[in-house]
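Structural prep section.
Before we set up the soaks we want a predicted structure of the protein with 2-phosphoglycolic acid in place, mainly to decide which crystallisation condition to try first. Input record follows.
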Amino acid sequence: MDVNKFRRKIIAGNWKMNKTVSEAVDLANTIKRELPDGCDMDVVLCPPYTALKAVGDVILNTRIKLGAQNMHWENYGAFTGEICATMLRDLYCHYVILGHSERRIYFGETDRTVNQKVKTAINSHLTPIVCVGETLDQRESGSAKDIVSTQVRESLDGLNVDLGKIVIAYEPVWAIGTGRTATPQQAQEMHAFIREVLSSMVGEEIAQTIRIQYGGSMKPANAAELMSQPDIDGGLIGGAALEALSFVELIKSLK
Ligand code: PGA
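Run finished without errors. Recording the tokens verbatim:
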């Protein structure tokens, strides 16, 4: 199977709780202007909710796609402070990050709630970017694979063929925002393992079509080597996505 046909590279910028509307518009405009022509990959910007509309307007009719950083699993109702999939679609979002470790750690997100959200996202024609990854303690105690396998199985429970419609992001918690990146070998080993877990859930053929991004201190200096690994299909970028030049430089380094 020609996996490149299904696993088009995907680079997504997760801006987290950064950028006012005007800062976000500036950043999106510069990225749009500086992005190299003919770069054959999906590029996604995930600003905070407050800047989704404005950034969406900047990238309208370009090949850059819009993503959100979270959403609720219900489609409407009395859930003060929450945002639903319908609202994201209304703003032309194509992607939504779900189960980021910061949401798991600080806001009590569980595999069960991630699973509910993934199902709603797919039903709403949003592509979920489902985040998994172990903490430093878990890696050092030798349980990283068990943890990641449970996260994958439970977050994606009951999805079956719909699994082909998702993106997974492997983000070791110890590498996020720390400047400490997984080595290409460590990342590849876990990506291949995640693909094995997916294969046991839906079969080899579908598992081979699922894109798995790496996230955790990915930057222009290390992106190309990470992305040269056979099971690494993209990057979820935090810090290096907050500056247009480093984000664009990272993308250019992959050409
Ligand atoms: P980082 O964040 O690139 O700043 O480590 C990645 C992420 O949290 O998605």
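Observations: Residues 14, 171, 176-177, 215-218, 236-240 surround 2-phosphoglycolic acid (CB under 6 Å).
Flagged for discussion at group meeting.
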